[in-house]
């Protein structure tokens, strides 16, 4: 029970927090997908009033539908253009979602001006709420989904209260086309909105968990190579915008194979865990640490290569002086690493180019005695 409560708390706090940069990137891709879908749906929506007219529907109702569909098409094209510049408009999913929900409410309110029961019993327009809430699952941001659900509940709830309050008589809420508006059916609709929001929120939560799992090294808990591959393009873009340099340090433990032979696999695992904790605790904001394979790590620093060398060399000295426990009660021991540096954009404009360059310098550090940091070939 306690575990379930903790689980629920964790889910709610994850859904309410700002996603990390990787999730925001995933969400921005989802926003573009939604914008494309919305543009297609908007185009198809133009057919509905036509079908209504051909099917013998009321002309005034069809004209309202047509006007709504045209406005929706224009807005859909604007959102599509903005979502192509995905990283610049982090507020876009909130605004587009609020606009989608509000559009549904406005269309229902317009229907009410013509025929009160149409506002509360029209199924097709009301389903727009469900679509808008469902589409937030593609934005991968719990705050957007909860905003959509909350807005739909408040707006539709208010609309229902107003329509029922302004009806001149109970007969005004009875329609041969739309059926009778009852309080029960309106409550059912509100409950359905809550259920749709919960389902979309669960999809967002699972997506966030899966993305996090795929970007995390299970042994150390550090970000892994996949994370680095997705994070670096954003760091490059920010560095370009801000006109600053980035340095990538490829860090490799020295003689780790020998340590494995001497103290065994589990002792070496434990030593590596402590090494990672120590290194991780030393990283500041503007520095990102990832495990790329075995005993190899990448530290990205928002610094030019010279300053980055001083920083990584200082870390090397501190780590070298740190006494690591090999096993419970065992002799303390020292771990050393070698590192090769490469700077963006000078040494390369992609992660693979920087890793290649940093690896050449790492090999030089190994050749020339280990326990050193190399920033250029000798
Ligand atoms: N215990 C343990 N060993 C690992 C882990 N990952 C990699 N290794 C071992 O680390 C060793 C890395 O070897 P190398 O990098 O080739 O060489 P090295 O002994 O570290 O020597 P240099 O890198 O040349 O200084 C290998 O024996 C791997 O099996 C791990 O997670 N745990």
UniProtKB/TrEMBL annotation:
* Residue stretches spanning the membrane: 39-57, 63-82, 91-112, 118-138, 145-167, 187-205
Q: Which Pfam families match?
A: GGDEF
Quote the EC number: 2.7.7.65
Residue span(s) of domain GGDEF: 244-378
SMART domains cross-referenced by the UniProt entry: GGDEF
Its catalytic activity?
2 GTP = 3',3'-c-di-GMP + 2 diphosphate
**Organism this protein belongs to:** Marilutibacter alkalisoli
Record's superkingdom? Bacteria
| Keywords recorded for this protein, A-Z | Membrane, Transmembrane, Transmembrane helix
Enzyme class at the top of the EC tree: transferase
Its name, as the record gives it, is diguanylate cyclase
Q: Which CDD domains does the entry link to? A: GGDEF
Q: Name one GO molecular function term.
A: diguanylate cyclase activity
């Amino acid at each position: 029970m306690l575990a379930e409560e903790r689980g629920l708390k964790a889910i709610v706090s994850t859904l309410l927090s700002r996603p990390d940069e990787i999730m925001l990137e995933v969400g921005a891709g989802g926003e573009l997908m939604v914008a494309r879908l919305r543009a297609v749906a908007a185009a198809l929506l133009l057919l509905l009033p036509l079908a209504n007219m051909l099917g013998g529907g009321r002309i005034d109702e069809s004209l309202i539908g047509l006007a709504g569909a045209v406005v929706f098409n224009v807005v859909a094209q604007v959102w599509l253009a903005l979502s192509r510049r995905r990283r610049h408009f982090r507020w876009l999913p909130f605004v587009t979602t609020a606009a989608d929900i509000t559009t549904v409410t406005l269309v229902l309110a317009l229907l009410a001006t013509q025929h009160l029961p149409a506002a509360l019993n029209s199924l097709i327009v009301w389903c727009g709420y469900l679509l808008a809430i469902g589409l937030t699952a593609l934005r991968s941001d719990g705050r957007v989904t909860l905003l959509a659900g909350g807005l739909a509940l408040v707006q539709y709830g208010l609309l229902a209260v107003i329509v029922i309050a302004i009806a001149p008589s109970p007969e005004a809420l009875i329609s041969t086309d739309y059926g009778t508006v009852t309080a029960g059916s309106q409550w059912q609709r509100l409950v359905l909105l809550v259920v749709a929001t919960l389902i979309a929120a669960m999809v967002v939560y699972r997506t966030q968990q899966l993305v996090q799992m795929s970007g995390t090294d299970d042994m150390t808990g550090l970000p892994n190579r996949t994370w680095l591959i997705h994070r670096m393009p954003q760091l490059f873009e920010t560095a370009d915008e801000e006109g600053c340099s980035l340095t990538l340090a490829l860090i490799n433990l020295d003689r780790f194979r020998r340590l494995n032979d001497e103290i065994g696999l589990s002792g070496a695992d434990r030593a590596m865990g402590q090494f990672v904790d120590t290194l991780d605790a030393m990283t500041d904001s503007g520095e990102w640490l990832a495990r790329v394979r075995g005993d190899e790590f990448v530290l990205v620093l928002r610094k030019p290569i010279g300053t980055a060398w001083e920083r990584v060399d200082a870390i090397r000295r501190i780590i070298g002086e740190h006494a690591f426990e090999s096993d419970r009660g065992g002799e303390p021991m020292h771990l050393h690493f070698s590192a090769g540096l490469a700077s963006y954009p000078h040494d390369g404009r992609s992660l693979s180019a920087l890793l290649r360059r940093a690896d050449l310098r790492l090999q030089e550090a190994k050749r020339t005695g280990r326990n050193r940091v190399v920033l250029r070939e000798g």
